[in-house]
Structures are given as structure tokens and as C-alpha cells.
Amino acid sequence: MKGIGLVSLRRRNRGKRSCVHLSSNSSEFSYGFSGSKFTILVNFLLVTWNRMFSFSGRLSKKPKNLKPRTKEQKEIDVLLSKDVKNLTLQETYKLASHLRHTSQFTMRVKNVTIGGVLKVRRRNDENRRMSEDRDSNSTIESTYSQKWDVSLNIEDVKGETRKKIGKGFQRRLTEDSEIGCLPKADSLRKSVKKVVWNEVEKQIYYEQQLRNTIENDPELCGYYQRRFKCRIDKTVMKTNAKTLWRHFNEKDGKQVANGDQEIQFTEKLMKFIRNGAYNPPRNRLQFIVEKSKNWDTSALIFSDIPKEEPDNIKIPHTLLYKYTNRNVVNEKKCPELAAIKKEAEKKIIKCDCCTGGAIKRCWQNPNCPCYITNMKLRQFQQVDDVVVNEKTNFSTFNPVLLRGGNSFFDTIGFACSDECECAGKCTNNVTLLIEKDVHPLELYRKDEQMGFGLRANTFIPCGTPVVEFTGELNHGDVKKSEHDYSYAIFSEDDSFPTMISKVLGKNTKCVAEIKKQFEKDERWFVNPKHIGNIARTCCHSCEPNMSMVRVFQKGFSPAHCRLLLVTHEVIFPGNELTFDYGPGYIQETLGNKCLCNKAGCRCSNIYETFSKCSEKSLEKYQALRYHIGYAEFKRNVLDAIEKKQSQKVVAQ
């Protein structure tokens, strides 16, 4: 006889008559009855049955005979339990090899999902399922490709007849009201105060603050999930190792060397690995700047230069700029670009998706013009000679996993905007996390020569858009004094016009206007020297943890382009946020004197030996870096929070 196991009772009212529905692992039963005594009797009998025969959801079975762990497995367990600082070079190599091998089974490791309890309504469950499965995108792409030969719904919208959908919907591409005032050095100097800092306590505080923010926001809770894995993801490991190998062995896209040696985890290399996170001093100088139009971010500002006091602190010119979270157009300097912007306002791509809860279901919606445009741009991504044979997706809550290599020119996304019916609060807006300012960031200065840098105070998953690179949108040649700040969004050899002409299809008028823009001006760039945001303080690194991608909203003019910095590895608390300024930056600007202090830097003392490592050896290097970072994060933050929560439960 089979055990009834877990039995669910569902009582359905049918007039005066009721029905109890019993469901088990083997079959289903339905009984009609009148009154509630029968319900009590059935529950009593089932509980008694389960206690007598030890049935708990399925037939009780004898435990399987587990195989005893081998000697090698026991040795690995000992290595995992030890602090990496106490391991010998041979033990470190053995541990790195094991971590590289087990990364292939990352999906089997139980993940810890943090970021708001999944207390969502039933109507939101479907939203999550639609946005969680990355593997289904290829099927969806082929299914919807039949409808893409239809021209997109680009509406002619006039100012007097524009539909008012909600508050804040009538944003223009140039938002002068959102540009802050130029701060004065004296006012910043008066705001400086000395504070006492405890790095571990602050990491715990910011982690709890982030969890509360996600849980209390209906547009994030149940949608945005942060997964903590004890092993590095295989795809991320291979992609970053391949990128680092190319950094060592390629120049201008051509292979000039062939690193094939096995890695040696010397003490010098381990010093670089262990010093991944910045540990600030106990006494810090903080610029007390409240969030406002002049500083529209929650990021804090600190100065950690030794022997510096509030009275003698030097205010660098890098802090004296107008703040904006949107690219702006100076109509006096660029009248042609201003005219293009006004014309682009009349022709926008927007959707009328309005189904769903707090977050609308635009992603994977075959009737959403913004999603269709997003998928059409995805077709142009090149997957040849890359580690990841899967194209990058630009959705709201799924990770934006880049494929490695120089993917800036062919990896482009399209997102819903505030002009859409969904107001950009949907599953097809990769800029949503940036606009919500979710992750606590910090500007810090430890060296006067290096200047300010940007670091994370919490755990940031791989593939997360962290910050947007904003500034003044210009065209033509860049001034020599502003060359170090500017970032080109289009260049003369960019295939973007050809790509867009295929995306827009029958919209010949729009295609002609875009081609006309590129014929007039060879270069378009964002200059944050005088107007910008905190992204201008992101430093260069030879081993960057972020990459820049282009995402368009509303249309495809230069004024519609947004430059997003996306993490291509896991960011642990204290890690500096960096990206690669380009191959010529070290030689032309720095004079071959890079200060990024990374093992893969050409100025490091181990570059000659480290650059000769094989690609598989660099995978071990990536796996060990992640292991050390995760172990410290778990010990300092996760275990401490879990301990506090357990103490609260016991106290209650």
C-alpha cells in the first residue's frame, strides 16, 4: 500500500454542499460531504497515519550507502577550509586547479538568493518566468523573426497632440533643468568632516540597506535577484581568461605572441590577488554632500590621503563640474545637433504595453516594438572567435553577459523609455537599475597623483549595469585638453549606419536622416569634463571589471544613445570599478607609466612571467581570485548577517 504522504485539503463551497479534494503522490480523490466534522476526522486520521508509518510526502526509504570520500577529496576539503594566506605554493596551485574544474558544475551548487523575499502576487509569477530563461531566447528570436519584415511603428508626434501618459513623461533629450550648478571649492572645503570608518561594519550595513531597498520596492522585489555562488561561473571564468590572454598576446587585433606556460602562484602573484579590495583607513575625510540636483546620486565622497586634515585639504578640479544623469546638447556650440535632436523628438519608437503588475511584460512580447528592435539589433552580434557562443541579451533583470573581445561596436541594445505606455518600468529596460541608483557606490582618493576612483560598497553580480557615462554630446574633433575625458560613441569606421538601415527596414526617411548625420560628422563623442556624473571618476585598469556598451531609447540619433558600464565579473565589496580606456591610453597619455596596480599591467613587476601563461592557467587564476573574494565576503558579511538574524529569532 502506498503512503498518502503530504495531503492537501481544498474545500470548495457548492451551496449547502461542500467537497474535500485529496491529492497524493499516486492519485487524486474527491469526496462529497456536508458539515465540518468529516474534515476534522480526515485530518486526524492522516496525521496519525503519517506518525505511525513515518510517511512524510513519499514512501520512506533506507538511506543510500554513501561512498566514502577519497584521500584526495579530503585534502581538498582541508584546503577549502584554510585561509589562502596559510597555503604553500603547491597547495595554492592544487586548490586553483580544483576550483577551475568545479566551475564546470556551478549550476549544481546551491545558490543563495538575496534581495527581497519573493513575496509577489500571483500575476507577477508569470513575469519572472518570462525574464528568467535565457536559453529560450534563440527560440523566441526565430519565432518572431517572421514579423520583423514589417516596418516599425515610429509615430509622428507633435508637441500639441502628444499623449500625456503620466508624471515625468514629457522629458526632452536635452534636460537643462537636470543639470546641476557648478560647485565652488570653498563650499566643498567647508563641508569636509573627519569620520571614523569600520570597513566590515559598513559592508554589513550597506548589504542590509540594499536588501531592504529591494524588498520595499514593488518594482524590484521578486524581479531583481542577487545570487551568491561559492564557485565562479564557468562562462565568466573562461571569458575573462580569454580576454586577459588576448591582452597579453594580441596587438591591434593581431596575435603577436603565444603564451603557453603553466602558471606559478608565487608570493608576488598572490599579493596581487589578495589585494583585490581597497581597505580604507580608520580615519577618513568625508565631503558631506546631500543628494540634490547638484549631486544627483547617493554616492559618498571620501579623501584618504595620509596626513590630510579638513583645514589643509586640497580640492581637486576633478570635483568641480556640473552634475547631470543625462547627456546634454549645447545648442550654441552645436546648432546642427540641436536641430537633429528636435527632429528626432517627432519620430520615436515606443510601445503600448500595459499588461502586468508593477513591472510590465515587454521582454519577449512579440507585439512590443521596442523589444522587436532590441532583438533585431541582437542579430548583428558576432559570435565567431569568442568564448561564449551565445549572444548578449539586454533585458531589465537578467544579467547582461558580454562575450569578451571588442564587442562595443556590434553589441547594442534597445530599451523602452518614459515615452512608452509602460513608462520604462518593464522587463525590456536595461537602464532601470541605474535610474533607481540601487547599488551604494563611493568616490575615494588614496593618492593625489591617482585622483578619485569609484568603488562598490556591496556585492554586485556579473552582468549588472552599474552607472551611465554621461556628459556633453559633441561632434567633430576633440580638443587636446579634453581628450582624456571624452569617449567616442561613433567613429568613421563604425558600421552603425548600415546596421540601423537594416533594423528600420521600410522607414526610408529615418534611415536617410541617420546616414546624413554620419556623412556630415565623422565622430560623435561624450565629453564629461565640464558636465558629467560619477562615471567620469572610473579609473583605467589593465584588468578591468566593467565594459562599456551602447543602448538606445526612443530612436537612433546620437542624442538617443546611452553609454552604460556593465560588470563582466562579480564585484565584491571594496573592489574598485574600472574599465579599459583603450589600447593607446597607456602609451600616449600615461607615457607607459600605468598605476592600476594589477598583475596583468605592463608596469607590474611580474608582467614578464605572468604574460606568458596559457589560457587554461589564466582560468585557474580567475577561479582563485573569485574564491578569495567570496570567502572574505562570506566571512565578513553573509555569516555576520545570518548570525544576527538567528539571534533575533532566538530572542523572539
Structure report:
This is SET domain-containing protein. It comes from Caenorhabditis remanei (Caenorhabditis vulgaris). It is globular and about 75 Å long. Helix 8 packs antiparallel against helix 17 and helix 13 runs antiparallel to helix 14. The longest helix has 37 residues. It has 17 helices and 25 strands. The N terminus is likely disordered.
What topology emerges from the helices and strands here?
Elements: E1 8-14, E2 17-23, E3 28-33, H1 37-53, H2 71-81, H3 89-102, E4 112-114, H4 122-132, H5 137-144, E5 154-156, H6 185-190, E6 192-196, H7 199-216, E7 226-228, H8 234-249, E8 250-251, E9 254-255, H9 267-274, E10 283-287, E11 300-303, E12 322-323, H10 335-345, E13 347-349, H11 369-378, E14 412-415, H12 432-436, E15 441-445, E16 453-456, E17 465-469, E18 472-475, E19 487-490, H13 496-504, H14 508-520, E20 524-527, E21 531-532, E22 539-540, E23 546-553, E24 561-567, E25 578-579, H15 585-589, H16 607-610, H17 615-651
Parallel strand pairs: 11-15, 12-21, 14-23, 22-25
Antiparallel strand pairs: 1-2, 2-3, 4-7, 5-13, 6-10, 8-9, 10-11, 15-16, 17-24, 18-20, 19-20, 23-24
Protein name: SET domain-containing protein
Domain SET: 439-582
Organism: Caenorhabditis remanei
